Amino acid sequence: MNKCIAIACGFAAMIFVATSGHAQTSSVPAGKASAADQTFLKEAIRGDLAEVNMGKLAQEKGQSAATKQFGQMLEQDHGQHLQKAKDSAQQLGVSPPIEPNAKQKKMYDQLSKLSGAQFDKQFAQHMIMDHKEDIGKYEKKAKSKGPLAQFAEQTLPTLQKHLQTAERLAEQKSSQR
Asked: Most exposed: 40, 95, 121, 131, by fewest CB within 10 Å?
């Protein structure tokens, strides 16, 4: 009898630990997302999809090793963030988009027609503009009291690192003239 109780208590403790550990890894509470949160999440996912594609393009078309390395960073970081964003969308009942938006596709198409130093320069400039815009959106969301505030706050250091890297690339290109 005591052995059965001990086994049952141990099993209950394992379930408690497993479920409480799962709850701690999630930074987004389950539930229905507001219209603003749905829009933010969908834009975040589209942005990640676009950045993964841009990262691959930079690795393919970039002339400098720094551009190619930045492309690899973008692909890896935004690929990881994409999964987190999709997980958050699932928790909030938001259907994640499966492709970048029209503006992002257009920019990809424009850059894909370039090569060499011209690609590197335009790519760096686009990444500066894009990451400045994203940082503004994520800062605003991080200050909100909504379910995505922590998600946005945790993303900001990566976006800021990308912006700094893009700015360094642009400086290198302008000093090489």
From this structure: 95
- Residue-wise pLDDT for 87-126, tens only, equals 999 999 999 999 999 999 999 999 999 999 999 999 999 9
Stated pTM of the model: 0.80
| DSSP 8-state symbol, 33 | P
- Number of neighbours of residue 12 by Cβ within 10 angstroms: 10
Q: What is the total count of domains within the chain? A: 1
Q: 159 in a domain, yes or no?
A: yes
Write the single-letter amino acid at 19: T
> For the segment 121-165, what is each residue's pLDDT rounded down to a tens digit?
999 999 999 999 999 999 999 999 889 999 999 999 999 999 999
Contact residues for 40 (Cβ-Cβ < 8 A; gap 6+): 137, 141, 148, 152
CATH at residue 67: 1.20.1260.10
Q: Is residue 22 part of a domain?
A: no
Q: How far apart are CA 100 and CA 43, in angstroms?
A: 9
Contact, 81 vs 158, CB < 8 A? Answer: yes
Boundaries of domain holding 38 = 31-175
CA distances from 11 to 1, 8, 18, 110, 150 (A): 15, 5, 11, 58, 32
Residue 10 lies in a domain: no
